[in-house]
Protein backbone atom coordinates (compact mmCIF):
# COMPACT_ATOMS: atom_id res chain seq x y z
CA UNK A 1 0.00 0.00 0.00
CA UNK A 2 1.51 3.33 -1.01
CA UNK A 3 1.41 6.54 1.02
CA UNK A 4 -1.65 7.96 -0.81
CA UNK A 5 -3.65 4.76 -0.27
CA UNK A 6 -2.62 4.64 3.38
CA UNK A 7 -3.74 8.25 3.88
CA UNK A 8 -7.07 7.51 2.17
CA UNK A 9 -7.54 4.43 4.33
CA UNK A 10 -6.77 6.43 7.47
CA UNK A 11 -9.26 9.14 6.46
CA UNK A 12 -11.94 6.54 5.70
CA UNK A 13 -11.36 4.90 9.09
CA UNK A 14 -11.75 8.25 10.84
CA UNK A 15 -15.03 8.94 9.03
CA UNK A 16 -16.36 5.42 9.69
CA UNK A 17 -15.36 5.49 13.35
CA UNK A 18 -16.79 8.99 13.74
CA UNK A 19 -20.12 8.05 12.20
CA UNK A 20 -20.29 4.77 14.11
CA UNK A 21 -19.92 6.78 17.32
CA UNK A 22 -21.93 9.89 16.38
CA UNK A 23 -25.05 8.07 15.14
CA UNK A 24 -25.83 6.16 18.35
CA UNK A 25 -24.94 9.16 20.52
CA UNK A 26 -27.24 11.40 18.48
CA UNK A 27 -30.06 8.86 18.71
CA UNK A 28 -29.55 8.48 22.48
CA UNK A 29 -29.63 12.25 22.96
CA UNK A 30 -32.70 12.46 20.78
CA UNK A 31 -34.51 9.82 22.84
CA UNK A 32 -33.72 11.88 25.94
CA UNK A 33 -35.36 15.03 24.59
CA UNK A 34 -38.55 15.60 26.57
CA UNK A 35 -39.94 18.49 24.52
CA UNK A 36 -41.05 17.11 21.18
CA UNK A 37 -41.19 19.08 17.95
CA UNK A 38 -44.55 19.32 16.18
CA UNK A 39 -44.07 18.43 12.54
CA UNK A 40 -47.64 17.24 12.08
CA UNK A 41 -49.79 14.16 12.32
CA UNK A 42 -47.95 12.40 9.48
CA UNK A 43 -45.05 11.56 11.81
CA UNK A 44 -47.25 9.11 13.74
CA UNK A 45 -47.12 6.83 10.68
CA UNK A 46 -43.31 6.61 10.68
CA UNK A 47 -43.11 3.43 12.83
CA UNK A 48 -45.29 1.66 10.26
CA UNK A 49 -43.07 2.90 7.44
CA UNK A 50 -40.04 1.71 9.41
CA UNK A 51 -41.64 -1.72 9.80
CA UNK A 52 -41.93 -1.92 6.01
CA UNK A 53 -38.37 -0.64 5.57
CA UNK A 54 -37.01 -3.28 7.95
CA UNK A 55 -39.01 -5.99 6.18
CA UNK A 56 -37.67 -4.99 2.77
CA UNK A 57 -34.14 -4.64 4.16
CA UNK A 58 -34.31 -8.20 5.54
CA UNK A 59 -35.38 -9.50 2.14
CA UNK A 60 -32.65 -7.52 0.39
CA UNK A 61 -30.01 -8.87 2.75
CA UNK A 62 -31.10 -12.43 2.03
CA UNK A 63 -31.19 -11.72 -1.71
CA UNK A 64 -27.73 -10.16 -1.53
CA UNK A 65 -26.46 -13.28 0.21
CA UNK A 66 -28.11 -15.47 -2.44
CA UNK A 67 -26.66 -13.42 -5.30
CA UNK A 68 -23.10 -13.56 -3.99
CA UNK A 69 -23.40 -17.32 -3.46
CA UNK A 70 -24.44 -17.51 -7.13
CA UNK A 71 -21.39 -15.34 -7.97
CA UNK A 72 -23.65 -12.64 -9.36
CA UNK A 73 -21.56 -9.73 -8.12
CA UNK A 74 -23.54 -7.04 -9.98
CA UNK A 75 -26.89 -8.13 -8.49
CA UNK A 76 -25.23 -8.53 -5.08
CA UNK A 77 -23.81 -5.02 -5.21
CA UNK A 78 -27.12 -3.46 -6.29
CA UNK A 79 -29.06 -5.35 -3.67
CA UNK A 80 -26.69 -4.51 -0.84
CA UNK A 81 -26.49 -0.83 -1.81
CA UNK A 82 -30.31 -0.77 -1.82
CA UNK A 83 -30.28 -2.32 1.68
CA UNK A 84 -27.75 0.30 2.79
CA UNK A 85 -29.87 3.11 1.30
CA UNK A 86 -32.96 1.77 3.06
CA UNK A 87 -31.00 1.62 6.31
CA UNK A 88 -30.22 5.31 5.86
CA UNK A 89 -33.87 6.14 5.16
CA UNK A 90 -34.84 4.09 8.23
CA UNK A 91 -32.46 6.12 10.39
CA UNK A 92 -33.93 9.42 9.16
CA UNK A 93 -37.50 8.18 9.77
CA UNK A 94 -36.55 6.83 13.20
CA UNK A 95 -34.97 10.15 14.19
CA UNK A 96 -37.95 12.13 12.88
CA UNK A 97 -40.40 9.93 14.77
CA UNK A 98 -38.58 10.21 18.10
CA UNK A 99 -38.02 13.92 17.61
CA UNK A 100 -41.76 14.43 17.23
CA UNK A 101 -43.45 11.68 19.26
CA UNK A 102 -43.21 10.09 22.68
CA UNK A 103 -42.02 6.48 22.75
CA UNK A 104 -44.86 3.99 22.79
CA UNK A 105 -44.90 1.76 25.87
CA UNK A 106 -45.33 -1.98 25.37
CA UNK A 107 -48.63 -3.11 26.81
CA UNK A 108 -48.18 -6.87 26.68
CA UNK A 109 -48.35 -8.89 29.87
CA UNK A 110 -47.23 -12.31 31.04
CA UNK A 111 -44.56 -14.37 29.30
CA UNK A 112 -44.58 -12.16 26.18
CA UNK A 113 -43.25 -9.14 28.12
CA UNK A 114 -39.74 -10.53 28.81
CA UNK A 115 -39.63 -11.92 25.25
CA UNK A 116 -40.42 -8.46 23.89
CA UNK A 117 -37.81 -6.76 26.05
CA UNK A 118 -35.15 -9.35 25.23
CA UNK A 119 -35.76 -8.81 21.51
CA UNK A 120 -35.90 -5.02 21.92
CA UNK A 121 -32.72 -4.76 24.00
CA UNK A 122 -30.72 -7.16 21.81
CA UNK A 123 -32.02 -5.28 18.74
CA UNK A 124 -30.94 -1.91 20.15
CA UNK A 125 -27.50 -3.08 21.33
CA UNK A 126 -26.73 -4.82 18.04
CA UNK A 127 -28.07 -1.92 15.98
CA UNK A 128 -25.40 0.24 17.62
CA UNK A 129 -22.69 -2.34 16.93
CA UNK A 130 -23.70 -3.06 13.34
CA UNK A 131 -23.25 0.52 12.12
CA UNK A 132 -19.45 0.23 12.29
CA UNK A 133 -19.41 -3.15 10.54
CA UNK A 134 -21.78 -2.08 7.76
CA UNK A 135 -19.91 1.15 7.07
CA UNK A 136 -16.64 -0.79 6.85
CA UNK A 137 -18.15 -3.48 4.65
CA UNK A 138 -19.54 -0.90 2.24
CA UNK A 139 -16.29 1.05 2.20
CA UNK A 140 -14.19 -2.05 1.53
CA UNK A 141 -16.53 -3.20 -1.24
CA UNK A 142 -16.64 0.17 -2.96
CA UNK A 143 -12.88 0.65 -2.67
CA UNK A 144 -12.23 -2.78 -4.20
CA UNK A 145 -10.78 -4.31 -1.02
CA UNK A 146 -12.74 -7.51 -1.46
CA UNK A 147 -10.75 -9.63 1.02
CA UNK A 148 -11.32 -7.06 3.79
CA UNK A 149 -14.95 -6.79 2.68
CA UNK A 150 -15.41 -10.55 3.05
CA UNK A 151 -13.73 -10.55 6.47
CA UNK A 152 -15.97 -7.73 7.69
CA UNK A 153 -19.14 -9.23 6.24
CA UNK A 154 -18.62 -12.40 8.30
CA UNK A 155 -19.76 -10.25 11.23
CA UNK A 156 -21.78 -7.52 9.52
CA UNK A 157 -24.21 -9.78 7.66
CA UNK A 158 -25.57 -11.88 10.54
CA UNK A 159 -25.77 -8.90 12.89
CA UNK A 160 -27.48 -6.71 10.28
CA UNK A 161 -29.91 -9.50 9.38
CA UNK A 162 -30.72 -10.07 13.07
CA UNK A 163 -31.26 -6.34 13.62
CA UNK A 164 -33.52 -6.09 10.57
CA UNK A 165 -35.61 -9.14 11.45
CA UNK A 166 -35.91 -8.29 15.14
CA UNK A 167 -36.87 -4.76 14.10
CA UNK A 168 -39.86 -6.24 12.26
CA UNK A 169 -40.74 -8.56 15.15
CA UNK A 170 -40.50 -5.79 17.75
CA UNK A 171 -42.60 -3.54 15.51
CA UNK A 172 -45.29 -6.22 15.11
CA UNK A 173 -45.31 -6.81 18.87
CA UNK A 174 -45.76 -3.12 19.74
CA UNK A 175 -47.99 -2.21 16.77
CA UNK A 176 -51.26 -2.75 18.70
CA UNK A 177 -50.18 -0.06 21.17
CA UNK A 178 -49.52 2.71 18.64
CA UNK A 179 -52.14 5.44 18.43
CA UNK A 180 -52.25 5.18 14.61
UniProtKB/TrEMBL annotation:
InterPro entries: DUF420. The keyword Transit peptide does not apply. The chain crosses the membrane at residues 15-33, 45-68, 80-100, 115-135, 155-174. Pfam families: DUF420. Keywords: Membrane, Transmembrane, Transmembrane helix. PANTHER family: DUF420 DOMAIN-CONTAINING PROTEIN (PTHR37692:SF1), HYPOTHETICAL MEMBRANE SPANNING PROTEIN (PTHR37692). This is DUF420 domain-containing protein. The lineage of its organism: Bacteria, Pseudomonadati, Bacteroidota, Cytophagia, Cytophagales.
Amino acid sequence: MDVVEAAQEQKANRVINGLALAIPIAVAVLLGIRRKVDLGEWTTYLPHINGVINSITSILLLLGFYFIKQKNVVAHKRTMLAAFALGSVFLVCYVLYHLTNESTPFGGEGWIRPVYYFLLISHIVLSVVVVWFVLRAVYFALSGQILKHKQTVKYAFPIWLYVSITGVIVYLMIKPYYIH
